Automatic annotation (TrEMBL):
Protein name: DUF1254 domain-containing protein
Organism superkingdom: Bacteria
Residue span, DUF1254 domain: 56-185
Gene3D superfamilies to which the protein is assigned, alphabetical: Domain of unknown function DUF1214, C-terminal domain (2.60.120.600), Domain of unknown function DUF1254 (2.60.40.1610)
Sequence intervals crossing the membrane: none
The DUF1214 domain, residue ranges: 318-429
InterPro entries: DUF1214, DUF1214_C_sf, DUF1254, DUF1254_sf
Amino acid sequence: MCALCEEVGVSELTVERARRIAAEGWIWGFALLENFRTMYPQAVDSDDPRYVGGFGRFRHYSEPFTPANTDVVTPNNDTPYSWAWLDLRAEPYVLSVPAADRYYVLPLHDLDTSYVGYIGARTTGPEAGDYLVAGPRWDGAVPAGIAGVLRADTFLVGILGRTYLAGPDDVPALRAIQERYLLRPLSKFTGTAAPHPVDEPVWPVWREEDLGTVEFFTLLDFLLQFFPGLDGERELRDRLTALGVTGSGEFEPAALKPEMRAAVEQGIADARARLEEAKKDAADSTHWFGTRAEQGDDYLTRAVGVDKGLYGLPAAEAWYAGWAEDDQGNRPPNASAHDHVIRFAPGRLPPARYFWSATIYRLPERLLVANEIDRYSIGDRTPGLVHDDDGGLTLYVRKDRPADPKQVANWLPAPDGPFTIAIRVYGPASSVLDGSWTLPALSVDA
């Protein structure tokens, strides 16, 4: 018997029960640890080149990505990023945006990657505005002039903004907009006295290997200090408490009996196997990302989205899919073995309110591919595309330059080896979301 078990109404924490709880806790907590993996170098470790400057400030990427950029996997050149992190323990922040004549979105996510809300072209429109971002239990007065309030469920919040880039010549205009994304503590926004500062946590160092060991729960226990329990997750959190993961930041794997430690390790292995199996059937991003209300308690689907595309946008904002194999069953497709084509039939181009693109990445790194025409993606904004006689569009995916000049216009250069292609549809039509529009095959070009 243990006091923790009695508190949650468990007469005995058996080895098998510990294994099940560990598996459930790993699936649920995976998003928190993957989020911390990104937050740590950006907001905590000032010696890391990815450091954005700490909490409460933006770091913008304004130049298009090239194969030389390796700190972001599966990058896109449609919408360069603006990163920021907020610590809401002391007081809220105000996020101010300028009037913008282009697509942009500033999505704010909780510690478990659930979206708090979105500021941008689709949701709040093109006008300038000031938006209050408040943490759990904040009940202060909303200042006059605030256009909207976003209420987070965790004290640590991340922002991965995207702003439309028309091409290399558009960089100065893009940068001018990004520089007017402002973050200010509420006291600075209102010109009032700042609250007493909160204590700086003793941040644990991120270690990749912790994802697969009992130390996973040490880090999860630390992070739960910034995540007050939610009513809908009370029973899950109680079960974690039975393992000693209380949110105190004091979980100690060494205190586990050998048989319990082994059970936890088996539970982690079970969870990782479940995630790998779930990923096999994950064809597109329709249900991967969203608000807490949209995702509910489907933590396995959330984990799939985190694993395949951390911080992906919800399907209503941007729909993601791609080609992981060709029509001959080659998985992944390999440009050393075959040339490929993608044929969009007349009237079957991706229906987008804003724009669409298809970006190719070399595997296994999932990075951009150096090529002689410096083209890493192709889409509805690619100049000079040549449509088929019937109005359709054929893209040529191959490592060598096509001999036909018309095909060069539609050439997506592939690496000399395995690759994958990701398609992004910004502002997808309802036909994309309900599945009545589907991707054509990636076909081996005979």
